[in-house]
Amino acid sequence: MILAPALSAQDAEVEVGEVTGFFGGVFGVGSHPTVGAGFAYPTSRHLVPNAEFSYAPLGGPRGFRSNLWDFNGGVQVRFPGHIQRLAPYVGVGIGLVHVGGPFGSDTDFAVNLSGGARYYLTENLGIRPEIKGFLGDNRFTRFSLGVFWQFQ
């Protein structure tokens, strides 16, 4: 069955880790591209603790460009059951958002809320679309599409 590793991880019989690389866009601080990576490790059938970072160049005139960095950790809650190769989830987390440019920088805590799904292409490889909202001094939304690989 295509979901064998994910289902084993959900049953906590086999320990499965996951690495993800993603790209997309951030909105709410202008519209900018973003890239990032993350790691997840299921601890039970429905709970998936995770950590990730992302980067978005915020632009500006030459020599005056600023950037947004986000470092966060949280937990994804998988919905019971699955639909074929699709495993939807919702998530919550907390982390740091750093905005820096030539005239200074600002780092603040932010809570994030997310929703997405893992779509399995093979037993270990798949794609993961996600929307994540960041709530802090710098509020923004990130839409992303990731490629994940699960390993034992």
Describe the fold and architecture.
This protein is mostly beta strands and about 150 residues long. Helices cover about 5% and strands about 70% of the residues. It is built from 1 helix and 8 strands, in the order αββββββββ. It has one helix at about 5-10, and strands spanning about 15-25, 30-40, 45-60, 65-80, 85-100, 105-120, 125-135, 140-150. The protein has an 8-stranded antiparallel β-barrel. Strand 4 (about 65-80) and strand 5 (about 85-100) form a beta hairpin. The longest helix has 7 residues, at about 5-10. The model is unreliable at about 1-15 (pLDDT under 50).
List the helices and strands and how they pair.
Blueprint: H1 4-10, E1 17-27, E2 31-40, E3 47-59, E4 66-78, E5 86-101, E6 104-120, E7 125-136, E8 140-151
Antiparallel strand pairs: 1-2, 1-8, 2-3, 3-4, 4-5, 5-6, 6-7, 7-8
The largest beta-sheet arranges its strands as: 1-2-3-4-5-6-7-8
Which stretches are poorly predicted, pLDDT < 50 over at least 5 residues? 1-14
Overall shape: elongated
Largest sheet: 8 strands, antiparallel, barrel
What is the CA–CA distance across the termini? 17 Å
| Helix/strand/pairing category | mainly beta
* SSE sequence, one letter per element: HEEEEEEEE
Radius of gyration: 16 Å
Let me know the number of strands. 8
Work out the helix count.
Answer: 1
Average of pLDDT: 87
Percent helix range: under 10%
State which percent range the strand residues make up: over 45%
For the structure shown, list the relevant keywords.
single chain; 152 residues; mainly beta; eight-stranded antiparallel barrel; 8 strands
